[in-house]
Amino acid sequence: MPTLLWQKWTFWKRRGIPTDWSVRSGQPFHIADNDCHRKYGKIVGFYEGLRPCLSITDPNLIRKILVTEFHKFAEHRALASYSEPISNGLFFCRYRQWKRISALHSTAFTTGRLKAMLPIMSDTFERAVAGADANALGHPKNNPLFTSVKTMFQIDQGLNDWLVYYMPFIRRFIDIPFFDRHKMQIIIDSVDHVVSERVARDVQVPDLLQHSVNASVWADSYPNPPANTNKSFDKLTKVEVIGQAINMLAAGHETTASQLCLITRILALKPRYQTKLIHEIHNTLYTKDTNELSMDYEKLQKMPFLDAFIKEVMRVNCSITRIERHPTIDTHLEGIHLPKGTPIIIPIWALHLDPDNFTDPLEFKPERFLPDNLDDIKPYTYLPFSTGPRNCIGLRFAILELKYTLVKLLCRYEFVPCDETKLFNNDMAQKCRIFGEFTLVRDNCKQLAKMLQESDNEANRMAAAELRRFNLSEPPMTNSSNIYLNVQFARSMRTHTTGEQKMDSDPRGEAWIFVTIPELDKLAKRFGSIFQQLLFNAVVYHNATIDLINAKINELANKPARDYHGDAFVMMFIGHGKEEMIGGQCGNRERISDIVAKFDENRLNEWFYPVNGLIGHVNVFGQALSHTIAQYSWYKSLYQLLLKTIKRVKQDYTFNQKPEIRMFGVDQDIYFNPGIYIDSDSNEVKKKTFHNVRP
Ligand code: HEM
């Protein structure tokens, strides 16, 4: 026995392949897969019980497995048992059956068919939206089909799943179903009913199910078989038609639904993408003459940002996080001997998060998929739908469905976070750093953590934990040269005089930072970095003279308002600040208040202008600011400067909202509103929502 175990569990070691010995069971696949590749590299072995499995993120090997040597690696894992009708579905069936069924479905998603499906999509969308309005989806439990389809793939890691994965040979003796029999029966009955109705009434619906029905022997038997019926052997049987239908329901429902879910969340949390998409919708689908929006298949293909956005969503959140191939014969892969049936895992999520494949893989950056950058995507590193002969058959349909639904939704709704919206972990960490950065004093940090902890909001409690963790870190981040600030939610900006202004354009606007003395260059850069992370186009003018400042201000003053595409404008002067003058060593001096005066409210009023169409009204405002730095620059350290600023913040709580940056100028303060504020009545931390005006 020990020899047998030794023999089994040294399978990968003997082939010189690193082995992941972590206990994978209990962990979601995508996490276990990602961890193991980050730790051991691109080819990693592990064991499911005694069975050796190989996980691969090497693009060259992936190409071989999925494309060039597909015939050797064509099988999926036999998840469904033979007694389950879904075992006849494309995804689950064995290679021989798969070849026949996939050939019959090869024309299921041609452009012509997709176009024919658009009216069905439209109808479904309208009904879904009507359902949402009437709260019909508020009680999904009342709809057994909906609940069964939705929960079908929620693998509960119960005994059956465990046996299927770890002791598949047991199925030779007992029939172990992979899917819940009761739920599956509900789906089977519904599909059977629909198909029987269609066949009996000889109805043709331009959808996928019809494709299977038309390719079946079943179709020939109701009610009058066509005279020239081709009764060839390759037709689908009744159980195969049902198998396809359940398969498509399962493969097509949760996958697209979960993408749409994440899309709405991203849009709510990163509103700049909402603005960008609306712009593109407006530019592509809006016809000025008729004042109408019209969408069709071709137009949807001509929206590069929409395409890139959806691709990036599917990079960070691929619905299917790993695919598998099992060799159909004993074979070799780059010299590695693989016995027939060895599970080969291609962990799509780990592939998408590999820094070798995508720079800053945790950052959400749709720009990676814009046409100009597509060449940077290495082949076989981005596989949300897999690739090769056995890739997702519904790929084109799914993308069309996502694009269509998203555009329709954006034309009607704006997505805003609500109290239940969980922040992304990444955002959370950054948010906490912001507080850490700007509250500085550890007691403040603790106080804030306490307040967040005590609020009854899950997201706030997570933020509290992160904040505490941050607060323990040594040395304090405030002394680091890298300001790590990312106010994802900064959606408004205000100063003493302007009141709150919407600020969610992309970019938010311009930030011009003039620094007049070389000793303060570093500080200016840091503020430049802050504004950049606040999504401004930030420019730092080093060695700025008053002449340069005036020249830039004149340039701005003469720029037509319509040429300016941001919501906010910030000008910051960093200099000696002595007697509220700016200039220092670089030349003549000028009172900051004189510069500010050039940007008085009257001038700014000209910058408010309406834009007709989808976007609604965009408020553009500019504000000249000078900053505490002008007054406190002799502290020469941002840390001390901010300490001073915080002291002022504490002294002067004019607004009950906790500003992320509050800068004291000669006569202006500035607030970036991240969306979190302290409610003065309840003293709770709350999240604020802003509503854009849409027609
Ligand atoms: C965002 C949506 C979707 C994603 C991310 C997705 C992804 C995938 C992936 C990764 C596979 C595995 C391919 C492989 O093993 O190499 C797959 C297979 C499959 N998908 Fe999709 N899918 C989506 C939507 C759909 C839709 C809408 C349908 C049908 C209408 C569909 C039908 C199928 C079928 C039938 C298979 C099995 C293909 C075969 O084994 O030949 N999928 N999908």
TrEMBL record:
Keywords: Heme, Iron, Metal-binding, Monooxygenase, Oxidoreductase
InterPro entries: Caspase-like_dom_sf, Cyt_P450, Cyt_P450_CS, Cyt_P450_E_grp-I, Cyt_P450_sf, Cytochrome_P450_3A, Pept_C14_p20
Gene Ontology BP, a term: proteolysis
Oxidoreductase keyword on record: yes
SUPFAM superfamilies: Caspase-like, Cytochrome P450
PROSITE patterns assigned: CASPASE_P20, CYTOCHROME_P450
Cofactors named for this entry: heme
Family the UniProt entry places it in: Belongs to the cytochrome P450 family.
Its job: Cytochromes P450 are a group of heme-thiolate monooxygenases. They oxidize a variety of structurally unrelated compounds, including steroids, fatty acids, and xenobiotics.
Protein's name in the database: Caspase family p20 domain-containing protein
Organism per entry: Medioppia subpectinata
Record lineage: Eukaryota, Metazoa, Ecdysozoa, Arthropoda, Chelicerata
